[in-house]
Design goal:
The chain is α/β, with parallel strands linked by helices. It folds into 2 domains: about 170 residues, HUPs (Rossmann fold, 3-Layer(aba) Sandwich), CATH 3.40.50.620; about 90 residues, Pantoate--beta-alanine Ligase, Chain: A,domain 2. It is built from 10 helices and 9 strands. The strands form 2 sheets. The protein has a 6-stranded parallel β-sheet with strand order 1-4-3-2-5-6. Strand 8 and strand 9 form a beta hairpin. Helix 7 crosses helix 8. It is globular, with a radius of gyration of 19 Å. The chain binds pantoate. Pantoate binds next to strand 2 and helix 7.
Length: about 280
């Protein structure tokens, strides 16, 4: 696996290829990331991953500084998965000047849910992804693979690609879960042993909400409140647990049928904020 730190080196390495398949990450790779890389392998003539912890998508009080950086292990995992090229820019390579020119996603999609609780998050994500796309896929287009675990992020990226007519196919990867059902996430590493045992309660609450929605769709807000109260009673601080339409993340109603819905949740357990979702 070749490693490029600068944009020039990356472009040189990519020159012989016509359709890269790209998996952007912030490192600290787990099986979920590796599954995205494996999914990317047959989708292009070269498989590229990036590792870049993007300061722009963290709020000042969030975990940018402590975000786990596990370079050696990440390289070994990517190499073993068959990744051909790793783009790992240093901050000065990707942001040689302050990145004042930004991509602001459509507020109707990006200011709710994650964007409501993490203001500016999707501007940070869209800006870095646009820039990574320009670096990795800017010469010939290609395919980019994003996990469904970050459901709203995937929708923002899809909309960005569509609205800017980028020559990029966005492919979604299914969420990988631990045997008990906890969605794999780099932030799971922050959990204490006791919290790790409890953490599965978020995915359980989402599935239960989906199930109850199927039985009493008319009582949406009440069911969502009950689901959040249930987590609170177990010591969580939920930001949201909510049933939305898959198409636009609009508030779901009894008219929306099963197969068109997704239940999304974000909640803090101790110092760790976890997100998850479940399509139904
Ligand atoms: O999902 C992530 O890991 C990040 O938000 C991404 C897409 C790599 C942008 O920094």
């Amino acid at each position: 696996m070749l490693i490029a730190h600068t944009i020039d080196d990356l472009r040189q390495a990519l020159a012989p290829y016509r359709r890269p398949a790209f998996v952007p990450t912030m490192g600290n790779l787990h099986d979920g990331h590796i599954a995205l890389v494996e999914q990317a392998l047959p989708l292009g003539d070269v498989t590229v991953a990036s590792i870049f912890v993007n300061r722009l998508q963290f709020l000042p009080h969030e975990d940018f500084d402590s975000y786990p950086r596990t370079w050696e292990a990440d390289c070994a995992r990517l190499q073993a998965a068959g990744c051909n090229l790793l783009f790992a820019p240093r901050e000065g390579d990707l942001y040689p000047q302050a990145q004042t020119f930004k991509v602001h996603p459509d507020a109707a999609l990006a200011d709710m849910l994650e964007g409501h609780f993490r203001p500016g998050f999707f501007t940070g994500v869209a800006t870095v992804v646009m820039k990574l796309f320009a670096c990795v896929l800017g010469q010939s287009g290609g395919t980019a693979v994003f996990g469904k675990k970050d459901y709203q992020q995937l929708m923002v990226i899809r909309q960005m690609v569509r609205q800017f007519a980028l020559p990029i196919t966005v492919v979604a990867g299914e969420t990988r879960r631990a045997p008990d059902g906890l969605a794999l996430s780099s932030r799971n590493g922050y959990l204490s042993l006791q919290e790790r045992q409890e953490a599965v309660a978020l995915s359980q609450a989402l599935r239960q909400l989906a199930q109850r929605w199927g039985q009493h769709a008319g009582a949406g807000v009440e069911l969502e409140q009950q689901a959040m109260d249930g987590l609170r009673a177990r010591g969580w601080q939920p930001d949201y647990l909510t049933v939305r339409r898959r198409v636009d993340l609009g508030v779901a109603s009894a008219a929306d049928g099963v197969g068109e819905l997704v239940v999304l949740g974000a909640a803090r357990l101790g110092g760790t904020r976890l997100i998850d979702n479940w399509e139904f």
